[in-house]
Every structure is written in C-alpha cells, then in structure tokens.
C-alpha cells in the first residue's frame, strides 16, 4: 500500500470511530428510524415477489430467491426497534400503543413472520412459481395480521 493510500485508510478509520458507539448512545428517535428503515427494506424485497407470483412480470427463479432470502434475513431485525426506550420518540410512527402493553403477543406475530419468511426462502429457487404461491401467501398473511392488529391505518 502506498503512503497516500495508508493515510487515507487511517483517516477513514478515525472518522468512523465516533459511530461505533454502544447501544446506550441510541436515542428514542434512532430506534424509530431503525425499525422503519428495516420495514421499508422488507417491503422493498417483498413487493418484488408479488408481481412474479401473479404473472404480471416474468418469473425469475434466481431473483425471486434473492428477494425471499433478503426478507428472511431482514425478518429478524425489526424487533430490535421495539424496545421500551423507543416509546419516547416524537417522530411520526404508525405503531399502535398496544405494542407496548402486549409485548409477548406482539412477539408471536414477529415469530410467525420469521417462520413464514424462512419457509419461503427455503422453497424458493424452483422452476414452477405456482409451487411458491402457498408459502408466499403465508408470508403476506403474517404481514397483514400484524399490521391489522398493531399498525395504525395510514
Ligand atoms: C410483528 C408485527 C409486524 C409484522 C410481522 C410486519 N410488520 Fe410491517 N410494520 C409493523 C409496524 C408496527 C409498522 C409501523 C412502524 C412505525 O411506523 O414505526 C410497520 C411498518 C411497515 C412498513 C413501513 C411503511 C408503513 O406502512 O408504515 C412496511 C413497508 C412494512 N411494515 C411492510 C411489512 C411486510 C412486507 C411485512 C411482512 C413480510 C411486515 N411488514 C410484517 C408491524 C409489522
């Protein structure tokens, strides 16, 4: 590595240090932004699969699997944005207050999504998209179930 590269590397490392703080540095707003960001990413990938299942765009097994795997990985992540500290945020949010009183019940909805998303990712890759319809439908059902119960109408 030449000296200029080395200097650049060092300053990049130093610049990144402040953002490597621990969880205690997180504010209520950070949690809200985090969970909304994760949900938006889940929605991003989820919405790419529906049109393939419905035949509105050509089915591509590799692309479908990529999106299914993204949803499966991301499905583990929103829970981290529903900690009690997040309650004090004044940012706009669609979380219903029930979430904070029914933690156990809310978590079962989260687990159901995680399970359904893992099954879809597992099955994805097949040649016939119709085989994926039930698993895809089951994920959609879990999204809707939680939204109906714990998300304010937008
Ligand atoms: C355990 C409950 C739960 C599950 C399961 C769930 N969501 Fe959500 N989702 C929420 C809540 C609550 C919000 C509102 C978050 C906020 O505003 O802070 C939300 C927000 C979103 C948003 C952000 C935009 C908006 O409408 O507020 C998208 C997109 C989204 N969810 C998609 C999905 C998809 C797709 C799935 C299924 C793969 C899913 N969600 C599963 C509870 C859930």
UniProtKB/TrEMBL annotation:
GO terms for MF: electron transfer activity; heme binding; iron ion binding
Keywords: Electron transport, Heme, Iron, Metal-binding, Signal, Transport
A Gene Ontology biological process term: electron transport chain
Stored SUPFAM superfamilies: Cytochromes
Post-translational modification: Binds 1 heme group per subunit.
Binding site for heme c: 143, 146-147
InterPro entries: Cyt_c/b562 (IPR010980), Cyt_c_II (IPR002321), Cyt_c_prime (IPR012127)
Pfam families for this protein: Cytochrom_C_2
Lineage: superkingdom: Bacteria
Stretch forming the signal peptide: 1-23
Gene Ontology CC terms: periplasmic space
Name of the protein: Cytochrome c556
